[in-house]
UniProtKB/TrEMBL annotation:
Its main location: secreted. Belongs to the peptidase S10 family. This is Carboxypeptidase. The chain crosses the membrane at residues 12-33. One of its GO terms (biological process) is proteolysis. The gene is LOC110784628.
Length: 485
């Protein structure tokens, strides 16, 4: 036993050295190829419709070999509704890589500020410059970040009634229109393999958008949709929210007594449901005050291992998960690099972005009037219909998140598999990222999968960039997660 584990660790350290050398080698040779390909594409490009959206250079960015684009697509001429996108081509050989649409949640939070600039995009702001993210998802795909619905980030409606009563249905329709018209700008991506990924409230946005695509394809095959991946998603409001009590309790954030109250007297789904209807019952108010007092505001609910809030990436969860606190809420994030960066005038200019009806770019919209009761629409059933239509779905969970805990998501996926009579194709097991366990996974019928990401927050690519990239690559290749070192 000890001798085998010794030789095992010995050979893996050799392997590691080789891998590192290989990567260094690949890195240099591929940089060269990228430059050549980039030049080639630039000169012989058959379509020029998107050329005005090309980003010459983002202020403070390091030199890179891939192209970036940003701009607007009008989704409603009457109300002058335009959605803003940021598109990053793959680092290497973009024409052979799939197209991936990324959506953040909220509802009403920005895929540009959260997804692209804090999670899985190529750069992260640091002071006045942009630092390269070595685990950017554009290593594996062409990444399209969409600020949706109107009122989010740089997306706008000139007619302010465009911000009223926006809900899941309008958002899905606008997103569909966006993508169809975006393909007119980038026709070379029209028939490319398409994946949709995102997190949190995108558990609502994505299944509903994918469902519209599947319906649309029945009339006219337009979307080459190959799969959907949902990170810490809201899929069924009661199951997701009520798994929170046990998560708090099992991680020592609340006492036995409070746990009992939080399940028996007033559970979290009841509280949120009352809160959104504008009336919180005395019993729920009492329970939530107790829960708030014990959990405290100095532990990050989106990653319970962290001391205080990490950054504005966390704002998106504040909306789906209101929590009663004692007195005013303190923002422990004093400085936010992304907010500062995206509010620079030179950055806005480089992104071809405009501020319409707002004075500042914000992580989450304060102009949008979203129909928050839509959170109660169960989208797990929509996921079921996607699977029945042959679309692979991966649900993954950062396992340190208490906002949408892994336990609720795992239960929902398992129940769906039973309902669809899908047999287990990968029994629950660990998966590896590099030399360590990246998390656990289980698959059903080779089409529906669940995975955890070990040590990850609500925003998985933010807190576990390397593990998230392994997960992302397996998902794109529709392969089970790595089984061994
Ligand atoms: C949550 O509370 C509601 C209302 O009291 C109840 O209908 C529901 O069954 C509860 N859910 C759980 C998981 O306890
Ligand atoms: C699932 O497993 C059962 C029992 O082993 C088997 O009878 C059935 O054919 C399997 N279904 C599929 C779709 O493979």
């Amino acid at each position: 036993m000890s001798s085998s584990s010794h030789s095992h660790s010995h050979s893996s350290s050799i392997l590691l050295t080789r891998v590192v050398l290989l990567l260094v080698f690949l890195h240099f040779s591929l940089l060269f190829v990228t430059n050549v390909t980039g030049t080639h594409l630039h000169h012989n490009h058959p379509h020029h419709t998107h050329s005005s959206d090309k980003i010459i250079n983002l202020p403070g960015q390091p030199k890179v070999g891939f192209q970036q684009f940003a701009g607007y697509v009008t989704v409603d001429q009457k109300k002058h509704k335009s959605l803003f996108y940021y598109f990053v081509e793959a680092e290497i050989d973009p024409s052979s890589k799939p197209l991936v649409l990324w959506l953040n949640g909220g509802p009403g939070c920005s895929s540009l500020g959260v997804g692209a600039f804090s999670e899985n995009g190529p750069f992260r702001p640091k002071g006045n410059i942009l630092v390269k993210n070595e685990h950017s998802w554009n290593r594996e795909a062409n990444m399209l970040y969409l600020e949706t619905p109107v009122g989010v980030g740089f997306s706008y409606s000139i007619d302010p009634t465009g911000y009223d009563a926006v809900g899941d249905a309008v958002t899905a329709r606008d997103n569909l229109v966006f993508l169809r018209r975006w393909f007119n700008k980038f026709p070379q991506y029209k028939h490319r393999d398409l994946f949709i990924t995102g997190e949190s409230y995108a558990g609502h946005y994505i299944p509903q958008l994918a469902n519209l695509m599947v319906q649309f394809n029945k009339k006219e095959k337009v979307f080459n949709l190959k799969g959907v991946a949902l990170g810490n998603p809201v899929l069924e409001f009661a199951t997701d929210f009520n798994s929170r009590a046990e998560y708090f309790w099992s991680h020592g954030l609340v006492s036995d007594l409070t746990y009992k109250m939080f399940t028996k007297s007033c559970n979290y789904s009841r509280y949120v449901s009352e809160y959104y209807r504008g009336y919180v019952s005395p019993v729920c108010s009492k329970v939530m005050r107790q829960v708030g007092r014990e959990t405290s505001k100095f532990v990050d609910k989106y990653d319970v291992t962290l001391d205080v809030c990490m950054s504005s990436v966390l704002s998106q969860s504040k909306i789906i998960s209101p929590q009663e606190q004692n007195g005013e809420s303190i923002d422990v994030c004093i400085e936010d690099e992304t907010v500062n960066y995206l509010n620079r005038q030179d950055v806005r200019k480089a992104l071809h972005a405009r501020l319409v009806n707002v004075r500042q770019w914000a992580v989450c919209s304060n102009i949008l009037d979203y129909q928050l009761l839509d959170v109660e629409i169960p989208t797990i059933t929509v996921v079921g219909s996607l699977v029945k239509n042959g679309i692979p779905v991966l649900v993954y969970s950062g396992d340190q998140d208490s906002v949408i805990p892994l336990t609720g998501s795992r239960t929902l996926v398992h129940q769906l598999a039973v309902k669809l009579k899908l047999n287990t194709t990968t029994p629950y097991r660990v998966w590896f990222a590099g030399e360590q366990v990246g998390g656990w996974t289980e698959s059903y019928g080779n089409i529906l999968s669940f995975a955890t990401v070990r040590g990850a927050a609500h925003e998985v690519p933010y807190s576990q960039p390397a593990r998230s990239l392994v997960l992302f690559k397996s998902f794109l290749d529709s392969r089970p997660l790595p089984e061994m070192l």
